[in-house]
Amino acid sequence: MRIGFITDEISSNVEEAIALGAAWGVRDFELRMITGARVPRISGDEVEQLLRLQQRHGLRFTALSPGVFKGAIHEHARLEHELQETLPQTYQLARLLRTPTIIVFGFKRDLPAMDAKRGNERHAREEEKILEALRRAAKSAEQYGLTLAVENEPGFWCDTGSNTARILAQVNASNLRANWDPGNAMGESEEPYPHGYEALKQWIGNVHVKDTSKGALVECVPLGEGKVDWPGQLQALARDQIVAHVTIETHCAPLRENSKRNLEYVRRVLSASDKK
After folding, report:
1. Residue 56's domain is classified under what CATH number?
2. What range defines the domain where residue 76 resides?
3. Alpha-carbon span 19 to 23, nearest angstrom
4. Which of these, 232, 150, 165, lies nearest to 200 by C-alpha position?
5. 227 vs 23, 159, 189, 199, CA distance in Å?
6. Using alpha carbons only, what angle is made at residue 99 by residues 102 and 32, rounded to the nearest 5 degrees?
7. Angle at Cα 79 formed by Cα 74 and Cα 207, nearest 5°?
8. What secondary structure does DSSP assign to 52-104, as a single string?
9. Running DSSP on this structure, what letter comes out for residue 190?
């Protein structure tokens, strides 16, 4: 299984990030932030730079992460802008860079716990709107031959493995998959591995690798020092062969040093798995 990086998790300078990763033997990179702007809001010169780097190092740009669907479903103007402008621009960039996957999110959950009948009805209405938005996005991506991967995040409708699987099953689009992030699922109502993974694995198309000592997005630490069972999760991914690569999202400073450390950790775990 190949190992990749989100470039801005090594360095904010994309050329430096790719040069370092290439020197470590990495050829798979996910693009998110380029010179302080999130894709696809980058200049023509930056696109040309990425194409030159891709050719020079023999890179695969595995995914683009434009940060869409991070708002609540009732934010209509934001949603329509993302569906009609941000995503189409991302698809065009993906075509230029020969990138197969676009990472999206699962909408911020802004409703309180639903106990009353009225609350449950509102919950159902909002969920149906989310399903329709994801169906629209999947249909538009299909026209470009692209896959969308919904990343789980705390406080979102797609937060745990089980909740993400339930949403994806209802949308029922062949090009709508999951970007599984066990670190983002830590601290939720289920253990990310094995329970969240087992619930979601038939939908997983991309994987982010980071660790945390307290919970999702809180006190991220180098791999192996936090609460995520990365040996178990990585070995399961290698065994089940549902993805061709995993992507390291270091998320803890100093980025360069901890990225190298995380890469060595993943290589050790996968090497040990190969020997079993």
Report:
1. 3.20.20.150
2. 2-275
3. 6
4. 165
5. 30, 17, 14, 19
6. 55
7. 105
8. HHHHHHT-EEEEE----S-S-TT-HHHHHHIIIIIHHHHHHHHHHHT--EEEE
9. S
Q: How many CB atoms lie within 10 A of CB 81?
A: 14
- Number of domains forming the structure of the chain: 1
**Contact of 235 with 273, CB cutoff 8 Å:** yes
Torsion angle of alpha carbons 24, 26, 31, 35, nearest 10°?
A: 30
Long-range interactions of 120-128: CB distance < 8 A, separation 24+: 126/73, 126/74, 127/157, 127/167
**Tens-digit pLDDT profile for residues 9-54:** 999 999 999 999 999 999 999 999 999 999 999 999 999 999 999 9
At a CB cut-off of 8 Å and minimum separation 6, what does 163 contact? 152, 157
- Long-range CB contacts (< 8 A, 24+ apart) of 217-221? 217/153, 217/154, 217/183, 217/184, 217/251, 218/187, 220/183, 220/250, 220/251, 220/252, 221/252
- Residue among 188, 103, 185, 195 nearest 150 (CA): 103
Q: Alpha-carbon distance 79 to 17, whole Å?
A: 32
Over residues 40-91, the pLDDT tens digits come to: 999 999 999 999 999 999 999 999 999 999 999 999 999 999 999 999 999 9
